[in-house]
Amino acid sequence: QRLKAAIHYTVGCLCQEVEEDKDVQFSKQSIAAISEITFRQCVLAKMFRGAFLILCRHAKRTTVNTEDVKLLARRSNSLLKYITQKSEELASSNMEQKEKKKKKSSAAKGERTPEEQEAAVTENEDSNMA
User: Where is this region: Disordered (predicted)?
Assistant: First the structure.
């Protein structure tokens, strides 16, 4: 109750500041609605944090991974689809970056990339046949 009251008071103060700056009016009902939404978001954030911690402990880990997030989002098909898509995009982006780093380090060491090695073998075979 005290937390709810504190949130309501803070939202009221913020609304007053906006009223003065933007020359608009907030009704008591709108301030109460904004306060309630803010409170619920805080509760949801705390619940998700707790759920992530439980999943990590169950898996004997200390790090939240994408599978944990997907597990919590599984009841919302659209959210799960979005999270899966973003996860795949990040994974492919990371793979591309790793490949670029490998090529750069190989070039710096004077080594050939797998494609260059294959081309050299093919060239060698062609010259042996001639």
Answer: 89-130
Query: Is the CB of residue 41 less than 8 Å from the CB of residue 49?
Result: no
pTM: 0.43
Q: What domains, with CATH codes, occur in the chain?
A: 1-44 (1.10.20.10), 62-103 (1.10.20.10)
Inter-CA distances, 125 with 39, 86, 113, 130, Å: 72, 45, 18, 9
Q: What is the torsional sign of CA 96, 69, 83, 34?
A: negative
**Cβ proximity of 64 and 71 under 8 Å:** no
**pLDDT tens, position by position, 80-127:** 888 889 888 888 888 888 888 877 777 666 655 566 666 555 555 555
Q: Please tell me the distance from the alpha carbon of residue 6 to that of residue 79, in angstroms, as a whole number.
A: 32
Contacts by residues 10-13 (CB-CB < 8 Å, ≥ 24 positions apart): 11/35, 11/38
Whole-Å CA distances, 62 to 33, 51, 52, 70: 37, 13, 10, 17
> Is the dihedral angle over the CA atoms 37, 82, 75, 91 positive or is it negative?
negative
